[in-house]
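#random but structural
TW: two for the price of one
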Amino acid sequence: MMLLSACGQTTFVSPAALTRSVMFHTEDLKLTAKKLPSPVKRLALTKAAKAQTESNPLSMAVASALPQASPQLHPQLHSPTAAVRASLNTQLNGINYYPQQNPWNRFWTHYDAAAVTRDLSQVRQLGFNSVRIFVFYELFGGPDLKSEQMAYLQNFLNQAQSQGLKVVVTLFDQYQQYAPEHDRAAEAHLNHLYAAVGNHQALLAWDLKNESDLDYPANGTETVKNWVSRMASHLHKLDSQHPITASYADAAQMGSETESLDYLTFHYYGPEANFASTAASIKQRFGDKPAVLGEFGFHTWSDRPGDGHPPAHQYNYLNAILAGAAKAGLQGTIAWNLHDYPELSDVPVIRNQPVNRYLGLFDLQGQAKSGVLALNQPVRIIDADTQSAVSPDSRRLELVYASQHPGALDLKFQRQGQAERSLSFRSHTGLNSQTFSVNAAEIKDLLELRLQAVVSAPELEQAQTLILRRD
């Protein structure tokens, strides 16, 4: 994985101590088992998305993960990407995945098909449309793939397909052989892997390397960047159907090597207030090339020395980051991750950085943590000035939501069911951002739940009481 601290300074973990992991996200399609669009609405969504995805390789690949009225052909990839800001209907909505008892390398050495079945069913019910997994180069056999691990990978892809989920396969995890003399073995690895699973219907995209920028100090910046370009070129020759990316722990480290990628992937664990500037810098440097937030999360280790996090604040962080991602026009998000993990001495990422045990959406007893509430909020509310969670100091609030049609969204402040203040906002098709002011007494009563902020709109099945923050 990578780094870790959300409220304070972002701390990157040494690559030598870590293994890596990730996944994909859709905001408003709500691809849950219990709530799929009707056939008529499904057709309408498909037609609406088509015009926005035809010139965007990643959008077209994602579209195949969404309910379709008819099969959709894949594009030829690695072509110049047109300026596309996909609607929330075609965004990736994913989760990074390891089984709770067998994370990182143990996933493939202690493969548990029954656990995968349970977890992928849960992933689907949470509303995700995709997952991100990791293929460890040496563990899978390097240039000569191991049949045992490949059988496990095939089983995982088959199970994802049965759940209607797409998979981002992250390659070359724990790989450090960036010099050109090692390319032949790396290319053989890609050749065999593509031959085995490259045409699997669950495959969504390839992530060449997780956080390759963490390997710059040990291997040389240009050496690693050149390797990314060479491997992307080779994989494009093998596969013209699936988009290719490489993920970065620090978005500022992305450079000219990204020209060989179909879309950008960056990770973020820093303060909510800094996320907007990070996303804006990507836009400034790379224009409208599709970008995905490939990892983000908030640990709930309340007793962590020097960086204790109240578990309830996971909601605040995820809600603010998801609002920011929508406003930035990202192609989607991939949350880190499904589970908290037990103490495992044979997993270096956990042994050396215990905070990595506490980043899940579900705790060790399988109970949902507060972040689950943030996943599919149809209307998000944040502090308009800080772009963070609402606080007692907030005086301007912002509603962030998507609408499929022009219309109105009504907001009422209610006390014991009686409206004390009413606001109405005109909504347009696509992403909406509406701001309004509150006074000190109102924000105090809202945060102490004496007042409820309730929104209603034709597209909402029922009025929604907004969650300003959790404490």
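TW: number two ↓
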Amino acid sequence: MPDRRNRPSRTTAATPMVGEIRRSPAWVLTIYFLGGLLFAGFFVDSFLANDSERLQGLLVVPVLVGLTVPIALRIARTEGDAAYFGIVMAGMIAKLVSAFIRYLIAFGLYNGQADMVSYHNGGLTYVDSFRRLIFPSVPNLIGTNWIKVFTGFVYSFTGTSIVAGGFAYAWLGFLGFVLLTRAFKVGIPDGNVRRYTILVLFLPSLLYWPASIGKEAWMMFAIGLSSYGIACICARRSTGVVWFAVGVAAIIVVRPHLALVEFVGIVLAFALRRPATRTMAGPAIRIVGLFVVVLLGVFLVGQTASFFGQERLSVDTTLTDTASRTSEGGSQFTAVQVRTPLDMVPAFATVFFRPFPFEVGSTQELLTSVECVAILGFLVASWSRLRSVPKLVRSTPYLSYSLGYVFAFTFAFASFANFGILARQRVQALPFLLVLLALPRVQDLDAPAAPDEPTLQVVPDPEPERPRFGPAHRTRRPARPGVTAPAIGGQGSPTPDAGR
């Protein structure tokens, strides 16, 4: 019998395990080491200073790490690469470190003059209601009020520490980025998923801004939900409708105009999508889909108008008011007004690549400018990937959605006249711009498909003929001279010449 002890285990062969963490890149292990070192240092310092606010917050970190482990394992198994476990966990650690840095900057440099403090104080008023399982009654649960209420909900689990709240919001934003990487995997299966994952999880601005109590972390979570739903819908997965509905609802309660930006991407994906197969029901399905898209657009326009305090949405009025409200502070500049298609070029450069190096006036602007120049350099270096856009735009609806989102975001946010506000707002669109950096190269699309490798057919040896028994299958001996062959069952008879 065969020895079953030598057979490979299906579990260990099919799924990467945590024990294979040594296969992670060296920079991932470096993030592990630095994150653990910083955590230990902050914990000891907070303990010696008897800072209960910090201690309460730092105790949340092991819980968030434990919640992330199964997510990272699932992604590693899905990709068939154990290194993804280390990359995802390193991204989570980097996000939590960014949250603590934001806390130190807010109270060390700005003396607590930050939005997170306002949301923290608002959350304290609702935490007791949530602990008594009573949902607070808030007259206008949109925008800032929603963040305050949700902060109270978070505090009912983590305790009333602004550090703990910052870690929880940072982890929420991290989940949004993870969902965006999964959306890329589903929507553009031929793309470089690992490259996109690293860009989204470790780009400095995406690490820093959505890493505190505030709208940015919530919005990245909501955008990740809705984008993953759109990718699933494009891949004809029925569960995408649920993901999309929850994500859009989460966007509307904070920034309805971002849902309208997302809607433009949906329209472009719907308009450019090439039907996979031609069926009799195809035109009817497209008509129903168009009807649903129109209804969604009308609803989002109404919600956006209500958010800006208008009876009917006026784009010119909204953009003008935005420019006037943001043209204050030490980082203001002259905003770009998009009135013709040609204005989209300087508007795009303003939204994603300013301030330019010669426009910086502070350390924060200098760091932002360095990142913008790096992104521009990556785009130039990825020219072979950008050339694949015309070939993929119709066959890959998620790419069309990403392009539509970027164009609509450029139009809406070009009116911002403050570099600081613009740097914080652009994180809501950078993941879709980074999609272009992870597309398949055009030469890979043009390359002919490799022929199937010839397979060796093993022809079994012919089985030996089994012996047959019975009178009908007896072996006949050759007859002797002068003797006829014996008849079956009889005796041989001599021939006439037998006696000679």
